[in-house]
Amino acid sequence: MERKQFRWPQPLAGGKPRIWYGGDYNPDQWPEEVWDEDIELMRQAGVNFVSLAIFSWARIEPREGVYDFDWLDRIIGKLGEAGIAVDLATATASPPMWLTEKHPEILWQDYRGDVCHPGARQHWRATSPVFKDYALEMDRRMAERYKDNPYVVAWHVSNEYGCHNRFDYSDDAQYAFRKWCKARYGTIEAVNEAWGTAFWAQHMNDFDEIVAPKFIGDGNFMNPGKLLDWKRFSSDVLLDFYNAEVAMLRSVDPDRPQTTNFMVSASGTGLDYDKWGYDVDFVSNDHYFTPGEAHLDELAYSASLVDGIARKKPWLLMEHSTSSVNWRPINYRCEPGELVRDSLAHLAMGADGICYFQWRQSKSGAEKWHAAMVPHAGADSHVFRDVCELGADLDKLADEGLLETTLAKSRVAVVFDYESQWATEHTATPTQQVRHWTEPLDWFRALADNGVTADVVPVRGPWDEYEAVVLPSLYILSEETTRRVRDYVAQGGKLFVTYYTGLSDERDHIWLGGYPGSIRDVVGVRIEEHAPMGSDFPGAMDHLDLSNGAVAHDIADEITSVADSARVLATFQADAWTGFDGAPAIVANRYGEGSTVYVGARLGREGLAASLPAMLEANGIAVDDRTNGGAVLRVERVDEEMGTRFVFLFNRTHEPQQVAVEGEPMVASLAAVDEDGSAATIQPNGVLVTKTA
């Protein structure tokens, strides 16, 4: 696969590159007398970038073929004259009511065949030729109107593809799925082989016999190979729609960069965003914090994954929240300091733009309780004061040269794979308590507990260029990934592998001969059976203790043999009836010029953190002593050519942390530097940013 050439939104004429700062702006929800006040407050806050017209199709084209661009012209002009650049949306995210009334066949259907009726958003099917014609016409009209507008610096194509319409089971989708399968496999015989249709008499004689994985009855199990391909198809068909929109825009306006907002988070695995990353001019992401103790860590993990998807090119945080959202059962607010800290954490991880949903909090509609840069309380509020503080911080960091830096490469890569997550979602697996996505996050957090800030790297990415690599529950190991793993370790790489890794190939066919089938000689263990654990039946084994003090839950591997080159780092301690007492739990091995550590159970963040010192030592990885024993998350952005280094120190605890000051303090949010400048105290939710040259 070849990536598109990286293109970044350029500053307005006469301006200099800045960290883009702003958010979604919906002036069409407000009377025009509010617009001037908005722009004055934007200037006060340091806003220099807003996204416009994301859900404005019905305002721009109120009736078929009747267009009203005057209001949009006026607000773009006002913003541009105030020095605020526009990221202009295509307005195609949600069709207007007149379109769905005229063409109800554009509405997507769920797996039972029920139609998604209009009344919310994104109620269109990606495979509808009718909807595509209307959307591309809107793209063409927008591009022709604004291709020469000096205040538009980027195209915001649609919005959050697949947020609501990831799966569509209409006849259009079924027809498209057949075409996708033919393009992928060539022959129906190859599809039968890939899906294992010899089982349950599912053999097909022709592509016309391929049906979408619709409702098959409660308690039944869909063909896993077919379901995995359906998830691939559903991601691809939305990507095809994005590319069709881009092609139309580019035919009229070839020079402006284009993007669309991903939804990358630890659990945000609906689309293969790494594959999408090949087709955008620059990567953009929407991220909303996880409430509670995982808040900072999950944010940093997700931002690192976005940086991996962007291959360490600058990326844009298109949306996050100043405080509470509106779509959770309980919508927790941001704690004091988190508005600034969260933004700086994304910045530390490689973002060159920080934006929110949205500028002004709505007074009506489904998102009226979603926080914004200007809240219901108005400018006289702690939220808006924090927004202004952040704007000043970003301005200073831009002046100091942050835009010339990128996220420093870690020594350790934690690998993430969308397809492994999709495969583990099947309803017929060893345990429904295990999914791929949780293990990479646990490793990221446990490594941070041990002073290591890892990079999160997609499986297609250059993880084999790192000193050490973690394969955390990477259920699918294709032949190509298997080759990369074997070559990496043989040539001196240091590998950590966990349970549920390397169980199947890319077709979800099990690697035979004992787990982890394709790399068991690399890690020096052979596993005959999984031992799921739970408490749903009285007397069932619900945990296993390890000799190093860790506790395993949910699943353990029955390791029946270890290689002569291996040594056991920890064993299970259990009653004899379990068959696990004294059995290997964590095993180190030598393979070629490299080394491996295999973790044969789900230990969780705490168990991994406790086990990591011995595992890191076995793989020759030293820990960083500048993190207060993992209480501080330390992130660097560097300009290797100039030697400039920005160090971000985030307090991961609810206790003040004393840290050494590395260089000249740039930003101190809930942090204070001592009089002699050698040390600083970072309060809970605080961050200190320093610069060395």
From TrEMBL:
This is Beta-galactosidase. It is an enzyme of class 3 (hydrolase). InterPro entries: Beta_galactosidase_C, Beta_galactosidase_Trimer, Class_I_gatase-like, GH, Glyco_hydro_42, Glyco_hydro_42_N, Glyco_hydro_b. Substrate binds at residues 121, 159, 327. Keywords: Glycosidase, Hydrolase. The keyword Hydrolase applies. The active site is at 160 (proton donor), 319 (nucleophile). It holds the Pfam family Glyco_hydro_42M. GO terms for biological process: galactose metabolic process. GO terms for cellular component: beta-galactosidase complex. Residues 633-690 form the Beta-galactosidase C-terminal domain. The keyword GTP-binding does not apply. Residues 411-621 form the Beta-galactosidase trimerisation domain. Residues 24-397 form the Glycoside hydrolase family 42 N-terminal domain. Belongs to the glycosyl hydrolase 42 family. Its EC number is 3.2.1.23. It comes from Bifidobacterium pullorum subsp. saeculare. One of its GO terms (molecular function) is beta-galactosidase activity. It catalyses: Hydrolysis of terminal non-reducing beta-D-galactose residues in beta-D-galactosides. The lineage of its organism: Bacteria, Bacillati, Actinomycetota, Actinomycetes, Bifidobacteriales.
